[in-house]
Amino acid sequence: xxxxxKKLGKKIKYYRELKGLTQERLAxxxxxxxxxxxxxxxxxxFVTSETLDKLCKTLExxxxxxxxxxxxxxxxQDMKKEILSLIDNNSEKLSDIYKIIKGLLD
Length: 106
Known about the structure:
Elements: H1 3-18, H2 23-30, H3 34-42, H4 49-59, H5 63-67, H6 76-88, H7 94-105
């Protein structure tokens, strides 16, 4: 299975859930079979250009947002490792990093 199909599927699922849509409802809005959407979200199938266009409009995202895999979908343990690495490599900014995190969490 292609890694890009899996990553795209995760992004589609993420934005679908963010909109509060079920697979059934989104499939209906896209005028595709629910099973087809399920295969897309699982990374088994790839979207057609027509479905991609409808997805972007329905989910109110750009194709760039759907295909930007750099940061958005790291596993939690990988996010923690990357955050710690960023902190270790930017110790001169530790005070600023602390203030930002503290501000977000308070």
